[in-house]
Amino acid sequence: MTKARTLDRRRRSIRNIRKITRTMELIATVRFKRAMDRALAAVAYTERMTALVNHLVRSGIQVSHPLLEPRTAVNQATLLVLTSNRGLCGGYNSSVLRLAYAHLAELQQTAQQVRLEISGKRGIAAFRFRKVAVHERFTHFEDKPTFAEVDVLATRYLDEYTSRQIDRLDVVYTRFDSPSRQYATVETLLPIAPLGVNQELNDHRVVEYEFLPSAESIVDEVLPASFKVRLFKCFLDAAVSEQIARRVAMKAATENAEKMIAMLSMAYNRARQGQITGELLEILSGAEALSK
Fold first, then answer.
1. Which of 3, 69, 181, 227 to pair with 237, CA 20 to 30 A apart?
2. 128 pLDDT exceeds 90?
3. pTM to 2 decimals?
4. How far apart, in whole angstroms, are the C-alpha atoms of residue 262 and residue 255?
């Protein structure tokens, strides 16, 4: 009887866990859809900004801007790593952290100083465990980063780059291509890639445009805005990828719980059947003894 009760207790416990994982799966699905809508909207805006830059290139003007100037010697590099605040999202954080460790080692070989900034409690804890110094920590972005929050960070990076406090900015995050494809990657956001580097731009004809008040003033507005949008998209991609990973992990946990419940139910039925058979044999043996 004790074995059957133990199995039944374990089965009830796993059923409760299944309810939790199923609920978390549904919540992650809702958050994923909302985050994906925001990410796709950012893609449209980014493409529009790229088209505007391409128009500037096709106009034939000579563009010069501090954000476009590559530094021959990288004295100070900044590495921003985007992780999550919460766990239960499969290998989402581990993929980003593996790439971050490797890229940090590469930067330390090429730059005189590397400034490490981490977004997300999981990444902060991982680097603390490795005893790696973290210069800036961010835990307020959660899974719904706003442009206003990212704008504060982006403005600081722009000021530091133009004042030559940093010579390079790299971001390690999980890129979102589609609901079935996300992968950890590294992007160099500063310096901005030279205007005109666009593989999809096959038309090299010079088109005359009239710029008001001037092409230089438009470039001064477009380049910082383009950088801010790209950094914001990194945060959005990381947020939607986190929810996809959590949804997949919770779905797998729910399916595993269902398999365990089925196995425990079978074991419970066998144990219960054995107990009933044993009790019947005892009754028959007692009845036979009384008849004698």
1. 69
2. yes
3. 0.83
4. 11
